[in-house]
Amino acid sequence: MSINILDRSPFAVEVAAREPRKHHKKKNHKDRRVQQTAQQAFEVTAFPVINQQPFPPLFLANLPPMQMQTPHNPLRPLQLEQIRQCVKMNPPFLQDKTAFYPATGNQPPIFFMPFQGYFALAKTIIISANKTVYEVVNIDTEELRALALIQVTSENSHQINNEKYFHQKFSEVDPQQEFFVAGSMGDFLIDQRLHTGFLMPLMKGGDVAKYLNKHPETNGEQIMQMFAHMLQSIAIMHHQGIRHGDIKRENFLIRTNPLKPKISDFGTCSLSDPRIKAALNDPKIRSPEFVRYGGLGTGRKADIWALGVTLAEMFGASDKDLLGLGSAVNSMDDNLIHQWTQHLANSISLKNPHAGNVIRNCLHVDQHHRPDIDQLMLIAKNQSIVA
After folding, report:
1. What is the pLDDT, as a whole number, of residue 7?
2. What gap in Å lies between CA 288 and CA 365, rounded to an integer?
3. Which member of 56, 156, 185, 313 has the lowest number of beta carbons within 10 Å of its beta carbon?
4. Residue 92, helix vs strand vs coil
């Protein structure tokens, strides 16, 4: 069955959504459920089928997922004004639903988010295996934001729903966005594939790892101030009974003030129920209990371990030492783990004694003897890390 995609009637939208797609390979039941979810999203998000120029309803069928056209140069004011006029001529089908306008000609793709407005893609920031992050500009206010776009699959749908929940929660807990990179979210149907978009502040400073590599002149006192702010963000999470599950330098982002990095990436967050298996995280930051119990029994104390490794990395711990610690943890030999943790703490102590002491406390083999976040902040305060 075919249908004129220029038809904006509700009937046309509903029929187009329900029309089965042709597949040469037989899909399993999980894939069918994801496809059904995509079809339902097509119906409820009112994907804009535009019947006016210059927004022809072009599906990017010949491009792989998330490889959307983006301009190489920043959008000029004249382009933004043209986009504003076009959008006024072609409003979304429903104002309380998300909408996507594909790229055409020199015009970039445009996303509509309820209560947020229209955002035009300005440039690609990050392309990874599971997500693409774009710099977008509000066509009315010209404010720059970041849009993380993830294609929904049967493998990642649970993690995406998890991230949606915690984005909403941390937006409420931290409305001023002093500690968390959280924002609005919405589902989009792009090339008839369901995607979830997270609209967040643009973190111009990048992540902590890249910042420290770019600014080797950053001294120990400044690194300690950065770590103090990171501790405060994790304290807010732990006081809510939430573990992050993937604490590392790359997940702390800098907006303008490098001394106040904010935590991001909430796909591995979880309420700290020891009966729930923890998500697989970076091998370098796995705690001994994570390896020993296969993820079960892994609570907030695993975040403390990861904070210790993260601080060591911020002070330039060698790959040899980090890999040695990781191998020791995988061996589940407590004596060997203890030797490596002491070696790592001692090597950092040569650069900054206070940091070495914090790392030594974080990397205790037995999680029951490891400090919780309040105790760690007290240790940090006594070491003049937290003001």
Report:
1. 36
2. 7
3. 56
4. coil
157 CB burial (10 A radius; 0-12, 13-18, 19+): middle
4: in domain = no
As a whole number of angstroms, the distance between CA 103 and CA 98 comes to: 16
Question: Three-state SS for 149?
Answer: strand
Q: Which of residues 201, 223, 251 is at a domain's end?
A: 201
Q: How far apart are CA 133 and CA 136, in angstroms?
A: 9
Matching residue, tokens 């080797």: 216
Pair 184, 313 in one domain: no
CA distance linking residue 87 with residue 83, whole number of Å: 6
* One domain, residues 222 and 356: yes
In the predicted model, what is the mean pLDDT of residues 72-85?
60
The model's pLDDT over 121-140, given as tens digits with 9 standing for 90+, comes to: 888 888 887 789 999 999 88
> Considering the domain boundaries, does residue 3 fall inside one?
no
The DSSP code sequence of 218-245 is: --HHHHHHHHHHHHHHHHHHHHTTEE-S
d(C-alpha 313, C-alpha 320), whole Å:
12
pTM of the predicted model as reported, rounded to 2 decimal places: 0.77
Task: Determine the Cα angle at 104 with ends 101 and 105, to 5°.
Answer: 155
Instruction: Determine whether 246 is exposed, middle or buried from the number of CB atoms within 10 Å of its CB (0-12, 13-18, 19+).
Output: buried
For residue 297, the Cα-to-chain-centroid distance in whole angstroms is 25
Structure tokens at 191: 């090339």
* Digit-coded pLDDT (tens) for 353-371: 999 999 999 999 999 999 9
147 within a domain of the structure (yes/no): yes
In a shared domain, residues 271 and 363: yes
Are 134 and 197 found together in one domain? Answer: yes
In whole angstroms, give the CA distance from residue 326 to residue 305. Answer: 12
Total domains in the fold of the chain: 2
Of 191, 105, 180, 95, nearest in space to 149 by CA? 191
Domain range for residue 368? 206-382
The span from the CA of 39 to the CA of 28, in Å, is 17
Domain end: 166, 201, 236, which one?
A: 201
Same domain? For 108 and 163 the reply is: yes
Amino acid at 90: N
